[in-house]
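pasting DNA binding HTH domain-containing protein for the record, 60 residues
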Amino acid sequence: MNKVSSQEIERVARIYNQNKDASAALGISLRYFARLCRHYGIETPYARRRRRLQDARVGV
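structre below
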């Protein structure tokens, strides 16, 4: 199994709009992608979408 670098994870987390698409691009499972993001402190596409929706509601 190939190791995935933190730079690769960060890049696909920025590019893709869904965790499913990002994990598929890396060739890893959705759960493993989420774990790696949590481990490296990277915001997932899902978390980014939720944050933006919350910011829009608050008006920030």
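The CA atoms of residues 24 and 46 lie 15 Å apart.
The mean pLDDT is 93.
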